[in-house]
Amino acid sequence: MTTIIILIIANWAALTIGGSIPLLGTSIAAILLGAIIRHTPLYSYFDSKIIKFVSKYFLKTGIVLLGFTLSLRILGQVGWEVLIILVSVVVISLLTSLILSKLLKVDFSLGLLLGIGTSICGGSAIATTAPILEAEDEEIAVSITTMFIYSMVALLVLPTLGRALGFSDQLYGILAGSAVNDTASVVAAAFAWSEEAGSIATIVKLVRTLLIVPMTVGLIYFKFTKQRKVTQSVNQPAVSWQQVKATIPLFVVFFVLAVAFASLVTIPTEVTSLISRSSKLFMTMALFVIGLGVHIDQIKKAGLKPIVLGAVTWTAVLVTSIGLLNILYR
């Protein structure tokens, strides 16, 4: 009972802090609260069975619910130019993060999470793909925290760049939507420029978030291909149906089906809002538990390498966005 009470209070605190400081966000607030409690006597009061249950099911439930808030119909509100920019951003971000993670000797899953978070939508993309990659708690915490750092940097850098490049409201809105990590920072960076830029950036960001779907499918295909190569190398029979089911997480199937449902059926705004809040509740609770699994020694061990990797990857995304904006719109 003590564990449940603490979890409820922590969830309320993270949501309150995230709501009061939108640029901080509930994801960072939840992880920080969990990490702080991890280093206090309060940590000893947690029931490990409840913590394992929340860790195993709440994040996945939140992700499935998130799918009902994403509709492919939003693609009709942007031109092919924006789609080219967003796809290019994803490719460049992933390549940069994977190449640099090898050079810096950063774990594959951490490097990939940083690339995915930078190119798509920060914490949500990281939370969605982390279970597929079987990432450790500290890798999730480090990658989400790194995303937060460069979201803050973007708020300072983007307006200056936009003015220096002589961008119109349209171009700046697309830049903010394609190059800033989390939604709160996109909104802050774009609406501070103008109402039109803010509206455009919001739509671009929603389209960008949809890229979580092909990303998850791609990661599953990667895992399946890797598993098949291992099977063939030891002269075992071809991959069985059981192995296929083990490779494809059930929550990903439900997530894709939720997106498909939201794309085919018009869900009332009130229902979508309720689902969105529910998704946030589940994911915030799960991220708090992830924070509980993070020890300061693990963060120290990670060192500055993730920060450097995040800096280079985000710079690559920024340069790609600006370059393509100048090519496609000027």
Automatic annotation (TrEMBL):
Pfam families: Cons_hypoth698. It is a multi-pass membrane protein. One of its GO terms (cellular component) is plasma membrane. This is Putative sulfate exporter family transporter. Keywords: Cell membrane, Membrane, Transmembrane, Transmembrane helix. It is found in: Cell membrane. The chain crosses the membrane at residues 12-37, 57-76, 82-101, 108-128, 140-159, 171-194, 206-225, 246-267, 279-296, 308-329. Signal peptide: none annotated. Belongs to the UPF0324 family. PANTHER family: INNER MEMBRANE PROTEIN YEIH-RELATED, UPF0324 MEMBRANE PROTEIN FN0533. Coiled coil: none annotated. It comes from Fundicoccus ignavus.
